[in-house]
Amino acid sequence: MKPELLTKRDAAITTHEEETVRAGTDELYEVRDRIDGHAEEDWLQAEGEVARSNERGAVLASTSDRYHKQLLVVLIGPSRSGEQCSNQEVSHD
Known about the structure:
Radius of gyration: 24 Å
Helix content: 55-70%
Structural class: mainly alpha
Oligomer: single chain
């Protein structure tokens, strides 16, 4: 399948991830002392690094969200936080 060429109008419209990948390819090119012939390899490496970074961010966000829900239960109790009570009875001695 042949990739489509970007028009000038489309070239200005890029996502944040694409910009990050492009910056990564520039860094790899500089590290290699500007030796040509590795553009595709650099792109794939930078793209993988961005994907891993996004995955780590998603895991951190998920962990943070669970932590905040647990904190709400501790601070204000399960009924007010929207959390379900367990079937275990709690002793209030």
